[in-house]
Amino acid sequence: MTMFPFQVNESISINIIQPKDRDELYTLIDNNRTHLRKWLLWLDKRQSPSDLDSVIAMWAQNVEERNGFDAGIWYKHKLVGMIGLHYIDWKNKETSIGYLLSESFEGRGIISTSIKALLDYLFAEFKLNRVIIQCAETNLRSRSIPERIGFVEEGISREAQWLYDHYENIGTYSMLSSEWNK
Under CATH, what is the fold of the domain 6-130? Predict the structure, then answer.
């Protein structure tokens, strides 16, 4: 995927997490552990920077195989979050976007702005037809992002994700290329 680094605007850039970014990524995760743990199961598996080595290698392989990406979001040259495409279904021209953001950078439009720029690219350059965002039903901040951008809510999957000690209902939103920028 030759789209990286991806300049969203003058303040926001998206780039593949490299081994050199490992410590900065770990700091982001560790500083936001309590905040992010409410929604992400994998945080407890990342207890030191070295725990990210195999994950970063897997992310590089996914990019190489055109099978999605996991990238950092830099805001004014500071790593503040992540955004990624989970598996790209090239046959059906579909993917899903996942994201996380440092709690101290919420409310600045960083994720919404990044997703809008990615949608422009995914529909125009990758010729995808459908992009999905899934969020926990109770994660109102996360759900407001696809709602604000104009994604269509397809429904709620009941108890679709086990999260530590309980099930979460998952909301699914979609955007079609025919609906984007109309």
Answer: Aminopeptidase (3.40.630)
Give the CA distances from residue 174 to residues 7, 92, 147, in Å, rounded to whole numbers and listed in that order. 24, 14, 10
Q: Give the number of other CB atoms < 10 A from CB of residue 111.
A: 26
All structural domains of the chain with their residue ranges: 6-130
Tokens of 93: 């021209």
Residue with tokens 């936001």: 32
Task: Decide: helix, strand or coil at residue 55.
Answer: helix
Distances (CA, A) of 169 to 33, 76, 163, 182: 22, 35, 10, 31
Q: Please list the helix, strand and coil fractions of the chain in percent, rounded to the nearest 5, in that order.
A: 35, 35, 30
pTM score of the predicted model: 0.93
**One-letter identity of residue 128:** L
What's the pLDDT tens digit per position in 13-65?
999 999 999 999 999 999 999 999 888 888 888 999 999 999 999 999 999 99
**Which residue in 96, 90, 67 sits closest to 175, CA to CA?**
96
Contact 133, 147 (CB under 8 A): no
